[in-house]
Amino acid sequence: MSTEKVELNVSEMNCAACSSAVEHALLRGTGVKEASVAFATGRAIVKGNALNADELAEIATNAGYPATTVDEGIDPAAMASELEQQQLKNARDWKRRAIIGLTIWVPAETLHWTAHPLGLQGPWLSWVMLIASTVAMLCVGTGFITSAISAAKRKQTNMDTLISIGASAAYGFSLFIFVAQQLGYEANHEVYFTEAAALLAIISLGHWLEASSTAKAGSSIRELLNMQPDVVELQLDDGTTKQIPSGEVEEGARIIVKPGSRIPVDGIVIEGASEVDEAIVTGEALPIPKEVGSPVIAGSMNTTGKLVLQTTVDGKHTTISRIASLVTEAQSSKAGMQRLADKVSGVFVPIVLLIALATVMTWSFLGEIEIGIVSAVTVLVISCPCALGLATPMAVMVATGESSLRGILVKNAAALELAGIAKSCVFDKTGTLTEGKPFVTAIRPSEGFTETDVLATAASIESSSEHPIAHAILKEVSDRNISFTEATEFNATPGIGVEGVVDQQKISVLRDKDATCRVELNGNLVGTITVNDKVRDEAKSTITELQNANIEVHMLSGDRIQNAKAVASELGIHERNVHAEASPEDKSRIIASIPKPNIMVGDGINDAAALASADVGIAIASGTNVAIDSASIVIPSNKIQSTIVTIDIARKTLKAIKQNLFFAFMYNTAAIPLAALGLLGPHGPLIAAIAMGCSDITVIGNAVRLKHKLRKLRRTQ
Fold it and tell me: Which one of 9, 108, 195, 616 is CB 3.0 to 4.6 Å from 599, fit for a cystine?
């Protein structure tokens, strides 16, 4: 049974532990093989057999996280609006909580510290602190407590569990002391009403900053989506026009695109001529001339003339939609580091609860219950794994978004991580290192045959092939005005050749050890054809840059060893790294023997197995759908120098991820002992809340720094 994919929008996730809880719930669904849930994007990608999207959405909802299915195909305008509204709502909710919390806490805290010096002592002061703290618990704390209770009902914990217990413990202990004092008991303990309010206010402020930064980090995907116009000028059968949303355009519709407007939907020019800037997809700096019959791509800019197009897809399956879908899936996927971080976050909260309990018991045994409670609250607050959950997805979100704006489509986070530590890069020769436009250089007919016989026989079967060698033979036939009869019963065997039937005679064009191919008629040799290809202009500089980046470069080809070595010599690839005369099966075996992690760059059907076998498969634009489907990164620009750009982005992203994880892990590792031992003093909870916010801001700031760095590089490339 074929593998299916379902995408869900998941809401009300507050931390990495929440995303792990949704993953575990979804994995219990019927037919589910794999589930990846991203806290930062609120997206879930589920893969398996015979999946029921509504059932999966219900499973996530029943787990406490309301979910809705995402329909196949993307309406860019609707998705851009949805993403923006979702991110704005999240930021708006936390902003409201932060403002309420700060409005309550700051005056109360100021009064707490200035009352004594100003001579404002009195019983009323304790009542003010109680009322302020109670309002904070009701107006701000209920969100955290509700989330924690919901997780507890499912026998789970999350970040809100720590915040809720911490704030409730500080408030509850203070309330106990306050009531005891009002009843006349000697209770000379400090009260921590303002600390409870501070925790809620500062953590809400941190989440507001986090939500705002997440929206900024994800702005690249919205930029991409906004490149497809919201409305289309549709030409009706009677010649009149009307405007409709681009997402409602049907395949085969006639649309008008005026100068200075973006192409709304992929199509073919049926009227007019113009120059179109396709940099968003191809990376080509100069506008490309378009005339009747020329294909145009959604998102590209029409510069000079009016065009009438006939759409080749509907408005939800445009190039922009497909790119956005790939980027969204990549942002929802998880690298190995992130899965490790999620596992740590999943067990971290229960461990912290045990540490907090042990802290209270130990200090109580020593006769210092107040220190024990304060220290335990500090442990709970300072241990929140927010930064740990954000460390990887924030960086991945930035990197995949920025890559898409360069015309580099990263399908999953794991590919980005592996590309950042790659030791070797393997290039297919024909169509990748070369232009893929080979030309005939020699024809050697067998006795009794002429060059025309050889070409006509080969063309009869190659006319049904998409291979670059076939194109070269057909061009030579066209240049010589040679006529031929197209073969029937066409069959292609990757790495071996093609065969078919003409006038009940079997024709074969097969690999040859001395030439590019040999032409046979009923098993008898008609002649051989030698084809050569021109090396891409940017190939040598790309190879040199990769080698300077300490990446070992290999070349893989099904071509003869002499041709392969000649190309390798021209490009500066060492002879020992040339793997020629390789079948598709050989290519997979060779990839397995090359230093790991390795990258394979290819474009053809015979590269599909190698692309899938490599740690990172990169398909360039001239590639077939099979090659593109087998790859984990796609470069539509058809420029192999984008390989070095991809690796550079991956390395910078990996560096940022490692920095973020270091900040998060070291923060918790160092802070918990200090909190448990009471070394942060009576105001430990307040210090912990501020420190936790700083930890989040450090991780978020590092991701924003990465975004600015990559954006600056994009402008200079």
Answer: 616
Q: How far apart are CA 355 and CA 472, in angstroms?
A: 72
Shared-domain flag, residues 118 and 38: no
**Does 641 fall in a domain?**
no
Helices 369-382 and 193-217, interaxial angle, to 10°?
Answer: 10
Token readout for 204 is 């809400």
Q: Is a pLDDT exceeding 90 seen at residue 627? A: no
Q: What is the pLDDT of residues 419-447, one digit of tens each?
A: 999 999 999 887 788 876 778 988 999 99
Alpha carbon 314 to its chain's center: 24
The 8-class DSSP code of residue 239 comes to: S
SS3 of residue 164 by DSSP: helix
Helix (H) / strand (E) element for 425: namely strand 424-428
pLDDT tens-digit readout, 438-485: 789 889 999 999 999 999 999 999 888 877 788 889 999 999 999 998
The reported pTM is 0.64
Q: What's the chain's length in residues?
A: 717
Q: Which residue has the tokens 């008898």?
A: 524
Q: Which of 160, 277, 342, 428 is catalytic?
A: 428
Note whether 254 and 197 are same-domain residues.
Answer: no
428 catalytic residue (yes or no): yes
- 521 with 612, same domain: the answer is no
Higher pLDDT, 164 or 603: 164
Q: Is 73 left (phi over 0), alpha (psi -120 to 50) or beta?
A: left
**One domain for residues 562 and 629:** yes
Place of tokens 């241990």: 383
Domain harbouring 561, CATH code: 3.40.50.1000
**Average pLDDT rounded to a whole number, residues 633-659:** 86
Q: What is the CATH number of the domain that holds 271?
A: 2.70.150.10
How far apart, in whole angstroms, are the C-alpha atoms of residue 638 and residue 640?
6
Given 607, 636, 665, the domain boundary residue is 636
Q: Which long-range contacts (CB under 8 A, 24 or more apart) does 343-347 make?
A: 343/20, 344/385, 344/388, 345/15, 345/16, 345/17, 345/20, 345/385, 345/388, 345/389, 346/16, 346/17, 346/20
User: Under 8 Å CB-to-CB from 655, ≥6 apart: which residues?
Assistant: 420
> Domain of 664?
81-219+326-399+652-716
Last residue of a domain, one of 513, 532, 551: 532
CATH number, residue 57: 3.30.70.100
| Joined tokens for residue 645 | 């750009």
How far is it, in rounded angstroms, from Cα 158 to Cα 345?
A: 8
